[in-house]
Amino acid sequence: MKVIVIGAGIGGTSAAIALQRLGHDVVVYDQMRENKPVGAALSLWSNGVKVLNWLGLADEVAALGGRMDDMAYYDGHTGEELCRFSLEPVTAQTGQRAYPVARAELQALLMDRVGSENIRLSMRLVGIEDDGQRVTATFADGSTDTADLLIGADGARSFTREYLTGVLGLDPIERTYSGYTNFNGLVPADPAVGPLDQWTTYVADGKRCAVMPVAGDRFYFFLDVPQPAGVPYDRAEGIAPLREAFGGWAPGVRALLDSIDPEASFNRVEIWDIDPFDTWVHGRVALLGDSAHNTAPDIGQGACSALEDSFALGIVFATNTLGVADALKRYEKIRAERAGELVRRARKRAFETHAFDPAATQAWYDELRTEDGSGVIRGIVGNIVDSPVNLGGGILT
């Protein structure tokens, strides 16, 4: 079977590997000219790591991951420790350590495993035709390719999603602004910011400043600033908006700001998501990853959810024999409800943490002062427990 995958991100490449391992001929197309993903790094919780293990990448992913043993919250203004606890119970309950990883390095690993001969860059999808037997993709340069199915892993502004909603006569699916801008990047790990093996987060005024360890003695940093969409920004400003938002914060935050080199690693991303929807498949065309469930990063499950898609896709094609359309509908049934629930959970979390309801955010800050870790760990494991990769036995308590 020949498969066209649109999108060489985490979802598209992991899906390609899953189908290649079943013996299928897979070609990946992406409009990017080189591996320059949006966002510096990502959180791989156990559900995402387990998919990568299943794809045969366990050792490589472990080498990319930072060692994140503990988690702590601090008052953003004073630096006072609100709570600190071990993340070992998450590992023990789920059967797999979590790994923060540099996104470009993980994407490069996945692209390398797909094989450069199977990836076509600088190819923008402009048309899809499904005649019931084969699917033809048309690209902006006028070229075409035909396959037995097409997987649209083409991101939040997905052309494949537009095709599906159009052919089904559905209203276009619009993105929803999450209410804040995220600044992120990579810096040398510095104990002045936080312990080198800890997920460190400073919170105050609905804003957040956090670092996670990644391989290579680096911190992945991310800072959230609640603000309207469309606030003007020029890259020449560098980190000026962060100085304005966080300049009077605790010494650890100021140390982080001093370490950021905007020329080396710095991203500014307005956070948007899409309302959950159930129709991911029509005929021989299916959505995967952000095209199906663009999710705010507030629970760290965006990339993990895309990896779950790839796992489910591989399983249905390995175990069902009634044809492409049937297998894709089974994939949709496995994934749509769970992925939509994670979108809703991330929205709820963003509402709580970013002072969209100031009383709710203050109540959360107050709870952190008495948190022994059990509540946070329960939430992290709760996002993982229903993952299809667990096959019903992945959580031990």
TrEMBL record:
<dbReference type="GO" id="GO:0071949">
    <property type="term" value="F:FAD binding"/>
</dbReference>
<keyword id="KW-0285">Flavoprotein</keyword>
<dbReference type="GO" id="GO:0006144">
    <property type="term" value="P:purine nucleobase metabolic process"/>
</dbReference>
<dbReference type="GO" id="GO:0019628">
    <property type="term" value="P:urate catabolic process"/>
</dbReference>
<comment type="similarity">
    <text>Belongs to the FAD-dependent urate hydroxylase family.</text>
</comment>
<keyword id="KW-0520">NAD</keyword>
<keyword id="KW-0560">Oxidoreductase</keyword>
<dbReference type="InterPro" id="IPR002938">
    <property type="entry name" value="FAD-bd"/>
</dbReference>
<keyword id="KW-0503">Monooxygenase</keyword>
<keyword id="KW-0274">FAD</keyword>
<protein>
    <recommendedName>
        <fullName>FAD-dependent urate hydroxylase</fullName>
        <ecNumber>1.14.13.113</ecNumber>
    </recommendedName>
</protein>
<comment type="pathway">
    <text>Purine metabolism; urate degradation.</text>
</comment>
<dbReference type="InterPro" id="IPR050493">
    <property type="entry name" value="FAD-dep_Monooxygenase_BioMet"/>
</dbReference>
<feature type="domain" description="FAD-binding">
    <location>
        <begin position="2"/>
        <end position="346"/>
    </location>
</feature>
<dbReference type="GO" id="GO:0102099">
    <property type="term" value="F:FAD-dependent urate hydroxylase activity"/>
</dbReference>
<dbReference type="InterPro" id="IPR047712">
    <property type="entry name" value="HpxO"/>
</dbReference>
<dbReference type="Pfam" id="PF01494">
    <property type="entry name" value="FAD_binding_3"/>
</dbReference>
<dbReference type="GO" id="GO:0004846">
    <property type="term" value="F:urate oxidase activity"/>
</dbReference>
<dbReference type="InterPro" id="IPR036188">
    <property type="entry name" value="FAD/NAD-bd_sf"/>
</dbReference>
<keyword id="KW-0659">Purine metabolism</keyword>
